[in-house]
């Protein structure tokens, strides 16, 4: 009888241990994903520092094109759609910005994203207040950043899941499969045109 009670207790402790390990792993991954999302919001805000209103020396133009992460998304047919932020990919050596991240949240070079990405960033930009040169009214953009990562310890995402135009990065619903394959964190902010 004592052996039966001990066996039942041991199995309960083992299942509790498994749930605890999985919970800790999920919490760590959510923390990394949240850090990546905040980092990309900061990168978009830093990129927007290049976007200024017209000035006395140049009253008819602004330099929105200098804000590459913003202008490449909004000046194309991609405005309002999800896509990967790739304006600066390959610009520096080693690359300092990426939309794919390894297991500890470090940027991956573009050549390694397909094989090694554990976290993937996509973003969507929409005009809230379009820029107006005539009125010198600052433009305002809504930026949504989404970070995806595979569910569970043994869940391997399909090859190319973190690629530009993939179902995961380009769709409003990045995970239509059942059961769900990805966790996701969303972060939204507004980005304003600078006055000078």
Sheet/helix structural class:
alpha+beta
Mean pLDDT: 83
Helix content: 25-40%
What's the order of the H and E elements?
HHEHEEHE
Instruction: Give a count of the beta strands, DSSP E runs of length 2 or more.
Output: 4
For the sheet with most strands, the description reads: 4 strands, antiparallel
The fraction of residues assigned to DSSP E strands is 15-25%
Distance between the termini: 81 Å
Number of domains: 1
Which spans have pLDDT < 50 for at least 5 consecutive residues? none
Number of continuous helical runs: 4
Shape: elongated
Q: Strands across the major sheet, in which order?
A: 1-2-3-4
Radius of gyration: 22 Å
Briefly say what this structure is:
With 196 residues, the chain is of the alpha+beta class. It has helices at residues 2-48, 68-74, 113-116, 167-170; strands at 100-101, 119-129, 140-150, 182-192.
Helices and strands in order:
Elements lengths: L1 H47 L19 H7 L25 E2 L11 H4 L2 E11 L10 E11 L16 H4 L11 E11 L4
Antiparallel strand pairs: 1-2, 2-3, 3-4
Any overview of this molecule?
The chain is of the alpha+beta class. It has one domain (2-192). The chain contains four helices and four strands; from the N terminus they run ααβαββαβ. It has a four-stranded antiparallel β-sheet. The longest helix has 47 residues, at 2-48. The chain is elongated and about 90 Å long.
